[in-house]
Amino acid sequence: MTATAAPAARPRTRGGRTRRKFLRRPPAVIGLAGVVIAIAVAVFAPWIAPYDPDTVQPATILSAPFTGGHLLGTDDLGRDILSQIVFGARASLASGVLATLLGLLVAVPIGLLAGYYRGWRDSAISRVIDVVLSFPFLVIAVGLAAILGPSLLNEVIALAVAQVPVFVRVVRGEVLGLRELEYVEAAVVNGAPDRVVLVRHILPNTLNPLVVQATVAIPTAIIGASVLSFLGLGEQPPTPSWGTMLSDAQQYIAQAPWFAVFPGLAIALTTLSFNLFGDGLRDVLDVRMRS
Amino acid sequence: MTARLEVTGLRVRFDTDEGSVLAANGVSFSLRPGGVLGLVGESGCGKSVTAMAVLGLLPPTATSEGSVRLDGEEIAGLPPRRMRRIRGREISMIFQEPMTSLNPAFTVGYQIAEVLRRHEGLTRDQARVRAAELLDLVRIPEPGKRVGEFPHQLSGGMRQRVMIAMAVACNPKVLLADEPTTALDVTIQAQVLDIMRDLRAQLGTSIVLITHDLGVVADIADDVVVMYAGHVVESGAVDTVFAGPRHPYTIGLLGSVPRPDLGLDDGRGRLREIPGFVPTLREPPGACVFAPRCPRADALCQERMPPLEEQAPGQYAACVHPGGHAHE
Amino acid sequence: MSWYVLRRVGTSLITLFGATIVVFLGVRALPGDPAVALSPENNDPAVLHAIRVRYGLDQPLPTQYVVWLGHALRGDLGTSPKTGLPVTQTLLERVPITLELALLALLIAVAIGVPAGIVAAVRRGSLPDYLCSTAALGGLSVPHFWLGILLILAFAVHFPIFPASGFVPITDPAGNLMHMALPAIVLGTGLTAVIMRQMRSAMLDSLGADYVRTARAKGMTEWKVVGVHALRNSLITVVTVVGLQLGVLISGAVITEQIFIIPGIGKLTLDSVFNRDYPSLQGVVLITATGYIVANLLVDLTYSLLNPRIRIAGGAR
């Protein structure tokens, strides 16, 4: 074996190494690409969509893809499907991301409290979480959305509440493990107040598992949002939304099957991208959930 | 006399996220029949990898080259089916962590019997009886009862003895012991070493004992091989090497052994550590691997990695400035 | 061991109790006046008041709760104003249907997911692994209702193999299975994906464990190493995970039954929400939550049974 020339500089920083590890995994990179595309579509919707999604054209209802200048065809009111999908990305992504962020915001302090202090606080919190978790995700989301009334904001709140229990469990589990670590004990023994210990020592170490969990929670929330819209409990027309499109499409399934295919495809591809990305992240950050 | 186990030019390469890592580079040694060879070095020097390569137990991300001969017959590169007949029957291995090396879902007796049924064709009952005998051989009290117990019901020392029993069940020619006592208390260590000595005497098993503990090597080994960063840097009979080490690394190792019997004033009693860290090799080295930490390193050492050369009868060292003491 | 069982059962009871409160309050929180819902044509306040008295809706909430709980414990969940039938009876009719659907889905999921997961783990990093893993992710990412619509499109409209919707009782096994086939596939897809991933992950962990290294060092055949040593430890993990998927199954059942018009408790849930049929809604959500809590309890107890460490050492955690 011949000696190689001086090797190319390898990244020495942890961030650099993580990035390289990530790039070595094709599925993860594809996922990241998908996520970026989805976000870009949502942000730049007005510039990407060929038509105004709300324009009703009674003359060309339910036209097939590639006809009359409509790439994906038109819906039952003559509106361009492609434009609706492009604009629909906004609602879906917004719901998914906001609901997850909100859920995290609420869940992290609760989880920290329960995991760190244990005792009656932990018992009480755990029991409440158990109770909420005894209802399936969709039941909570649908129930809350029904109670609060149909709107985008309420949809986000309902989804966020449904996300909170899982996040609390993750945080709590991590904290339980972390508080036994010696450097935490050392900090406590040195007189650091609880607040400092929690924020400076424990919280940063919960971030990795949380990030991974979030990348899985976002697609769940996106699907949840589309279910809610499908059932008529989410954002209301004329706001374009993938879920409402599917619900409309169900009626015209025999005449216009493509109508049902594309919105669902959009949901599936977006969700798949997030899932691939999240999986790759989990591999690379080497997260093992402490259960 | 043919060596029981002869390893020549063993190279092991790992493909990791950070590139290709050479864990073992040109390792050679020979084990005499009935002898105990100590394979010594710090963590990461490639000693475990060498043993795994001998048995063909490397993970799929690793590639190995070189020769491994058992009683003169080449076993490196044998197809997996042939290799499986050798493992556990002609060459056995025990590992460092007795806690996790036993399957928690099966009884201890089942795991020993497995080897017997696989290689010697014993029936379930025959194997169970023999398993109890083996537990007795490794001095586990109440062997008949222990046979039906699960690993978590046994102490660490007992688990390691179970591992030994599993390893010698089919009377193998060679036993590879990878840091068998490192995870155990000192008192248990002595017991386990005793058992190994007995087995060597009773069964004639040749042993390769991998360890970073020089005391254990001095205690039980006949020959010693010192490894550093994937290379063999010194080898020879234990008495010779320990009395008169030639390679600066070996000298450093021996110098860092605590000697409470020597006083602090004359300088010989002080604990001397070797400054620096063990490097991870990425490609074949262009210089002596120990040079960065060697008190004797000079321009000559930067030219190439010195080959193993005989410095005294039966004693080999890979150094261009061998002999004497490191700190002079 | 029995100490652990007692504690676990106690926790479950508390959770169950909490769940009943949530169900009760949740239903009450739905918009709309229940009295109006019970008799939508009537605007006369006197009649509405009479309705309230009759259904005990004028009592303070805690009293209503206790009354309802008392009845529930005796098996009386009230009467549905929509159908006029006792809720308990409706539930008894519908639960087996959803159970059948769930069971079929579980069967499909295990039959496909377990072997796929094992293969993916054993051949890690190769093409079969990538295919299985991506397919599994796809299965997780696909929204149930869209898959249902697609399947109807494909196998009921274009190639009429299966009926597009509807249900036939088990008395006609062939008809029953034909109608259940598509819904079971839809419901089982997500579950298959989860099982496959869990199996793969658990097998990878097992295969990387020290005891597998020992088994190989003993010269065991790969069949034994994978099928006995690694698998035994993986199954424990997977069984517990599967048990916890019951909640997801029920979530999925709600939508699936809606699309395929299967008269199970999933459809009942949605219908009651939209019909403001509070007694039915209370009953069905209660049953769902109870079922889930009981399932969790059983899973925990089974796990402690399977894991020798807890079983023999009597370890309380």
The percent range for strand residues of chain A is under 5%
Counting DSSP E segments of at least 2 residues, the number of strands of chain A comes to: 0
Query: How does the helix and strand content of chain C classify structurally?
Result: mainly alpha
What's the N-to-C terminus distance of chain C? 11 Å
* Low-pLDDT windows of residues of chain C: 313-317
Average residue-wise pLDDT of chain C: 80
SSE string of chain A, helices as H and strands as E: HHHHHHHHHHH
Helix content of chain C: over 70%
Q: Per DSSP, what share of the residues of chain C sits in E-state strands of 2 or more residues? A: under 5%
Tell me, briefly, the overall form of chain C. globular
**CATH H level of chain A: which superfamily?**
MetI-like
Distance from first to last alpha carbon of chain A: 47 Å
The oligomerization state is heterotrimer
- Overall mean pLDDT of chain A stands at 80
The CATH class designation of chain A is Mainly Alpha
Main pleated sheet of chain C: none
- What is the count of helical runs of chain C? 14
- How many domains is the backbone of chain A divided into? 1
Largest interface: chains, residues each: A-C, 43 and 44 residues
- Rounded to the nearest angstrom, the radius of gyration of chain A is 23 Å
Defining key terms:
heterotrimer, A: 291 residues, mainly alpha, MetI-like fold, disordered N terminus, B: 328 residues, alpha/beta, 8-stranded mixed sheet, 4-stranded antiparallel sheet, 11 helices, 23% strand
What does this structure look like?
The complex is a heterotrimer of chains A (291), B (328) and C (317). Chain A is 71% helix and 0% strand. By secondary structure, chain A is an all-alpha fold. Chain A has one domain (41-55, 65-289): MetI-like fold (Orthogonal Bundle). In chain A, helix 4 (81-117) runs antiparallel to helix 9 and helix 5 (119-133) packs across helix 7 (152-178). In chain A, 45% of the residues are buried. Chain B is of the alpha/beta class and 328 residues long. Among the domains of chain B are: 99-171, no CATH class; 244-317, no CATH class. Chain B is built from eleven helices and twelve strands. In chain B, the strands form two sheets. In chain B, strands 6-7-8-3-9-10-12-11 form an eight-stranded mixed β-sheet, with helices on both faces. The model of chain B has no long low-confidence stretch (mean pLDDT 84). Chain C has 317 residues and is an all-alpha fold. The longest helix of chain C is centred in the N-terminal third of the chain and has 36 residues, at 87-122. The radius of gyration of chain C is 24 Å and the shape is globular. At the A-C interface, helix 5, helix 6, helix 9, helix 10 and helix 11 of A face helix 1, helix 6, helix 7, helix 11 and helix 12 of C.
